[in-house]
Write a structure and sequence with these properties.
The complex is a heterodimer of chains A (112) and B (114). Chain A has 112 residues and is mainly β. Helix content of chain A is 0%, strand content 48%. In chain A, strands 2, 4, 5, 6, 9, 10 and 11 form a seven-stranded mixed β-sheet that branches. In chain A, strands 1-3-8-7 form a four-stranded antiparallel β-sheet, with no helix packed on it. Classes of the chains: A mainly beta (112), B mainly beta (114).
Chain lengths: 112, 114
């Protein structure tokens, strides 16, 4: 059982470029989430999805978009990357109504 | 404004002793409180949680205490082991039915010394 996988593991990106971070889970969880982790700020919620076909904005959604075409996949897109989006990005999933989220290993993104 | 605060960036404890990690919150709408543990280059893993109707929850060596009037929670680890060395994040959320929108603290790096 893989749990949650994220790709790529790390990426260096030029400012202004478009980038999609991939997230796949095999636990058939209804809910999925994207967080960014920055030193001194902890993890902050970017976007979330209750079930396939629905998405919602978290604490820091600006500059990011998500889609949830099916249960397993929840990609995060940066339409035009900026240096302030340099961060470690974590995808997570949970059963609806559960207080336990399972996190992927993260993607380290550097925007120059 | 940080709604969940961990004011100690780091904590060093001797193996076998008690580790106490603290967390304060400002939002009275928070109903669930959780602790996550994170090793380098890995995602956070769930450790223990408590709902606002309780003031204590215990799971093996880990106990979480909640003081609602002070808007404060703490995680006690007894006895501390070298494998407990990690970054610990406190998190909170309001009542939820679907997705749980967690608000995290900044994290505390715990080092257990042999």
């Amino acid at each position: 059982i893989a749990g949650i996988t994220q790709a790529p593991t790390s990426q260096i990106l030029a400012a202004g470029r478009r980038m999609t971070l991939r997230c796949t889970q095999d636990m058939r969880h209804n809910a999925m989430y994207w967080y960014r982790q920055d030193l001194g700020l902890g993890l902050r919620l970017i976007h979330y999805s209750n079930t396939a076909g629905t998405t919602g904005k978290g604490e820091v959604p600006d500059g990011y978009s998500v889609s949830r075409a099916n249960t397993d996949d929840f990609p995060l897109t940066l339409a035009s990357a900026v240096p302030s989006q340099t961060s470690v990005y974590f995808c997570a999933s949970s059963y609806q109504g559960s207080d336990t989220q399972y996190f992927g290993p993260g993607t380290r993104l550097t925007v120059l | 404004d940080q709604q969940v605060k961990q004011n100690s960036p780091s904590l060093s404890v001797q193996e076998g002793r008690i580790s106490i990690l603290n967390c304060d919150y400002t939002n009275s709408m928070f109903d669930y409180f959780l602790w996550y543990k994170k090793y380098p280059a890995e995602g956070p893993t769930f450790l223990i949680s408590i709902s606002s109707i309780k003031d204590k929850n215990e799971d093996g060596r880990f106990t979480v205490f909640l003081n609602k009037s002070a808007k404060h929670l703490s995680l006690h680890i007894v006895p501390s082991q070298p494998g407990d060395s990690a970054v610990y994040f406190c998190a909170a959320s309001p009542l939820f039915q679907g997705a749980q929108k967690l608000v995290f603290g900044q994290g505390t790096r715990l080092t257990i010394n042999p």
